[in-house]
Amino acid sequence: FFYKEKILSPGQLKRLSDHKYSCESLSILDKFLQPWWDWLVSKIPLWLAPNLITIIGLIINILTTLVLVYYSPDAKAEAPWWAFILCALGLFAYQSLDAIDGKQARRTGTSTPLGELFDHGCDSVSTVFVAISACIAVQLGSYPSWMFFQCFCAITLFYCAHWQAYVSGTLRFGRVDVTEAQFTIMGIHLISAFFGPEIWSIKVPSIGIFEFRHLILILTVVCCSVPLYQLFIDICNGGVGKNGSTVAGTSVLSPVIPLSLVIVPAFIICRKSTEHVYENHPVLYIMAFGLVAAKVTNRLVVAHMTRNEMDYFDSSLIGPAMLFLNQYFNFFIAEHIVLWICLIWVCFDLIRYSRQVCLEICDHMRIHLFKIVPSVTPQAIQQTSNKNGTATVSNNRQSRSRKHYH
């Protein structure tokens, strides 16, 4: 059940091949950053595959965040100033590389639906680490409930963006969206680096009960309300499918179930823990459940691009189930040990799923994931013709399809 030989059916692969990227962006900052992105992509060698650019950016983002996690695993301890600067630079690098991967694909003539899917998949993982890094920067571990709210708001917003795309067929970005949020978090890191994280605990002048970190909470609520309102409008207006359904012909409300199967258990396990597993290990907890949400979001993106129904249950939910059963039956295993097992399982399951989906698409479209392979030119066909004048293009295709995808 959990390890199907093939994740995508032939019909899904065919519909994926026919998928056309549709996006609307009103971002304030994007137009100012376009010259930087255009200059940057012009310096990228033509042999560098777009997906390789994306994954390099994600790795940088994850590693720089893990430096912060190393120094502040409970989101309470103060990390060194240089770790915040490193994290800000890592996020800027990820944002820049994420912005130019599509430009590189068009520049090299290698634009495919796989590139869009791979980009969104990396974004789903990055969202988790960016949210965690922001919480560490303002030491939200001292306010565990607030940290839970902040992180799951970010995760939910990313999921809802693709839920809206699943309903309307178009991915929409508002005037204040991903780019603006990323620069805000970069600013938070730089403030923590130069003034120390304790600056966020200073009371706001003239408003004695508010700390500066409360402004982030207000900003989060405001930024969440706009896209959630837009999602509500899209649902009320109906989808682009038959009888107001989604692109896959399913109910516009159906994506709420997979998301609920992540957030509701996360909340219940957190509240019912006798060992206070979340309060004592907030970063580990958010990381584990955040990656479960990333896996579910990836499946939503796949469902949208293949115009297919989304399954409600997922193998990554085995991780949270282990935590729940350990609590329910009061096993002797410490909850933080089970949480580590949960994280390891979720990482393994996410990587396995992503790898298999990518390889299936690569095999179907006869492309490579991390390498640009020159197409067969008429000159090459002429040179490889045999004595009877019969070209060997079919053999070339077969040999390419058997190569390992790098």
TrEMBL record:
Keywords, sorted A to Z: Lipid biosynthesis, Lipid metabolism, Membrane, Phospholipid biosynthesis, Phospholipid metabolism, Transferase, Transmembrane, Transmembrane helix
Biased composition (Polar residues): 382-398
GO cellular component assignments: endoplasmic reticulum membrane; Golgi apparatus
Primary location: membrane
Pathway(s) of this molecule: Phospholipid metabolism; phosphatidylcholine biosynthesis; phosphatidylcholine from phosphocholine: step 2/2
Any Gene Ontology biological process: phosphatidylethanolamine biosynthetic process
Region described as Disordered: 382-406
Family in the record: Belongs to the CDP-alcohol phosphatidyltransferase class-I family.
Protein name: diacylglycerol cholinephosphotransferase
Organism: Triatoma dimidiata (Kissing bug)
Organism lineage: Eukaryota, Metazoa, Ecdysozoa, Arthropoda, Hexapoda
